[in-house]
Automatic annotation (TrEMBL):
Domain (Xylose isomerase-like TIM barrel) ranges: 17-270
Cofactor binding summary note: Binds 3 Zn(2+) ions.
Protein name stated in the entry: Probable endonuclease 4
UniProt keywords, alphabetically: DNA damage, DNA repair, Endonuclease, Hydrolase, Metal-binding, Nuclease, Zinc
Domain of life of the source: Bacteria
Organism of provenance: Anaeromyxobacter dehalogenans (strain ATCC BAA-258 / DSM 21875 / 2CP-1)
Family annotation (InterPro entries): AP_endonuc_2, AP_endonuc_F2_Zn_BS, Xyl_isomerase-like_sf, Xyl_isomerase-like_TIM-brl
Binding positions (Zn(2+) 2): 139, 175, 212, 257
Cofactor needs: Zn(2+)
Residues the entry annotates as binding Zn(2+) 1: 65, 105, 139
Molecular function terms, GO-annotated: deoxyribonuclease IV (phage-T4-induced) activity; DNA binding; DNA-(apurinic or apyrimidinic site) endonuclease activity; phosphoric diester hydrolase activity; zinc ion binding
Amino acid sequence: MLLGAHEGIAGGVSTAFARAEADGADCLQIFTRNARGWAAKPLEPDEVKRFQGEARRTRKPVAAHSSYLINSAAADRDLRKKSWDALADELDRCERLGIPGLIFHPGSHENAAQGLELVAEGMQRAIEKVPGKAKLLVETTAGQGSSLGWRFEEIAAIRQAIPGAARRRTGVCVDTCHLFAAGYDLTTEEGYHRTFQELDRVVGLSNVRAFHLNDSKKPLGCRVDRHEHIGQGAMGLDPFRRLVNDPRFAEIPGFVETESRFKENIEVLRGLVRR
Ligand SMILES: [Zn+2]
Ligand SMILES: [Zn+2]
């Protein structure tokens, strides 16, 4: 697995590459805009050029993570419309920057079946509005409250509701902390194999384009999303040792999303790789 982290973009998106280098990362995840507000400045053509120059210089693969405000499944029409527009805007930014995948949380809705259809509709609209290659990657969630996407069946239902041509521009991002919180036990050998067998059967491993590598502060099946430093939470090191040595994921980028200490967490993960 390629190992990286979610890097900051203070000073412009192009500055994230130098941070990834300082952290000893193989790859990086970024926001392409302010993740905590609806208002987003357009990307300046000069900054796009600098970003592409840095991508060529460092040869580090990049993924984008969408704003946390987006809820494509929102029951409220205005919020849903705003979310769908923001998703399309973020996909457009990825296309312009040459980022192959935009990771986003499916959102929440009291009625899961209705919510999943709304997510699919928002994705289809964004993909049709933004021609190109960049993919929308649905992230597996912890299932907190009425959050969607915590069961593999829900992720599959979203993708299946999108017609073929647009569906080819969708994929999945698997978050280890969220899996564990959702009740998928990666801490035992048997649980690890069962989880990925099920993911393969329901979603297809070829659709997995990225991992989020986080330990969990909270116990198995708690459905609460609290990231912990690798090996220091309820999951421990074993799940991560299995993942970084799993040949099925050798070419896939994995991003640490702890609040701090990226370099240290990447070093811990690298120390688990068998030579
Ligand atoms: Zn995540
Ligand atoms: Zn999380």
